[in-house]
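Quiz preparation item.
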């Protein structure tokens, strides 16, 4: 039986908008410590899922358009109204651009999916995207290049700017590959950087006009690793519960597998007669 008292994110000390039943809110902008927890979870999610790939990946960046569409005003800053409109519509336009590019890759080569991505605010205030693509096998590398070429071809109608396609080698653009572990650290840094040994919320994560969904991680990874935002909340609840039951240290081998966190947080841990 599930124990409602053991909500996955219980003990909301400081949280101003606790969930029904008393659990913490899930807002990254909550100053009551929930934002810090969000940052820690995002960091763990991005890093651990990418680490699990144990291969090389491509990290590409897609930026907002240049001065032709987002001109600088007399104050030396990008026109605020145009910028705000561009940012507000960015996730919707990205989703269309990605769908069109991915469909083109699938038509030519079959199944294709992104590994993940994160949004980030550039210095000029426009959102841009960091996208991770698989790049281990020859097939995956071929697909990555087709996808990026399709993004580049289709970016104008969707009002995106530059698509970073790597360096030119003898007239041919070749994407740079990096280890998946390094890619995970990059993505984590954009949303939840470490500063002086402490995790903090990035500007992107704390801004009011940031997209509600700031990152994406493929389910093909999260179902294998078990590292999802929900499961990381269960992990905290499980630790809290084990300590309340005086069972610390007794179930460490079960705690090691993220797929057990939910049951440890909510299931019946007492032995029957
Ligand atoms: Zn809160």
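Solution:
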């Amino acid at each position: 039986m599930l124990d409602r008292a053991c909500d996955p994110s219980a003990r909301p000390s400081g949280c101003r908008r606790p969930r029904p039943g008393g659990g913490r809110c899930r807002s990254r902008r909550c100053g009551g410590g929930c934002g810090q927890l969000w940052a820690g979870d995002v960091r763990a999610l991005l890093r651990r899922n990418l680490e699990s790939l144990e291969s090389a990946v491509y990290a590409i960046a897609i930026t907002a358009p240049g001065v032709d569409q987002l001109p600088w005003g007399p104050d030396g800053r990008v026109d605020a109204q145009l910028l705000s409109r561009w940012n507000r519509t960015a996730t919707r336009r990205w989703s269309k651009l990605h769908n069109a590019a991915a469909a083109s890759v699938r038509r030519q080569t079959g199944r294709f999916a992104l590994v993940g991505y994160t949004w980030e605010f550039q210095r000029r205030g426009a959102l841009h995207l960091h996208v991770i693509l698989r790049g281990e096998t020859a097939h995956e590398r071929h697909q990555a290049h087709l996808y990026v070429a399709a993004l580049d071809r289709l970016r104008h109608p969707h009002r995106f700017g530059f698509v970073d396609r790597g360096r030119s080698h003898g007239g041919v653009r070749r994407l740079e590959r990096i280890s998946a572990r390094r890619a995970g650290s990059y993505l984590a840094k954009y949303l939840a950087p470490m500063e002086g040994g402490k995790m903090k919320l990035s500007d992107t994560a704390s801004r009011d006009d940031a997209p509600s969904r700031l990152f994406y991680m493929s389910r093909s990874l999260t179902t294998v690793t078990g590292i999802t935002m929900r499961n990381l909340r269960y992990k905290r609840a499980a630790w809290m519960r084990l300590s309340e039951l005086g069972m610390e240290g007794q179930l460490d081998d079960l705690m090691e597998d993220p797929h057990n966190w939910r049951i440890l947080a909510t299931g019946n841990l007492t032995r029957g007669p």
